[in-house]
Amino acid sequence: MAEGDVSELLNWFRTSGGSLDASVGFTVFPGSGRGAVALTDISEGHVLFTIPRSLLLSTETSALPGRIGIERWRAAQMHTGWVGLILCMMWETSQGPGSSWSKYLESLPAMFDTPMFWSDLELEELKGTSVVGKLGKADAERDFTEKLMPLLQSRPDLFPPETIPAYYTLSIYHVMGSRILSRSFDVEKDEPEGAEEDGAAGEDGAEEEGEGPANTSLESAMDVDGEAASAHGGDYESDDDEDEPSGVSMVPLADMLNAQYGSENAKLFYEKGDLRMVSTKAIKAGEQIWNTYGDLPNAELLRRYGHVDLLPLPTGALGNPGDVVEIPADLAVPPDADSDATKARIDWWLEQGGDDVVVLESDLEIPPALAALIRLLRLSPAEWEKAVAKDKVPKPALDAEVLGVVRAVLQRRREAYPTSLAEDLVRLADADGLPLNARHALIVRVGEKRILEGALERVVGLLAAAGDGDGKRKRKGRGEDDAGRAGTTKTRRRG
Ligand SMILES: C[S@@+](CC[C@H](N)C(=O)[O-])C[C@H]1O[C@@H](n2cnc3c(N)ncnc32)[C@H](O)[C@@H]1O
Question: Which residue ranges does the record annotate as region Disordered (predicted)?
Answer without folding.
Answer: 186-249, 467-495
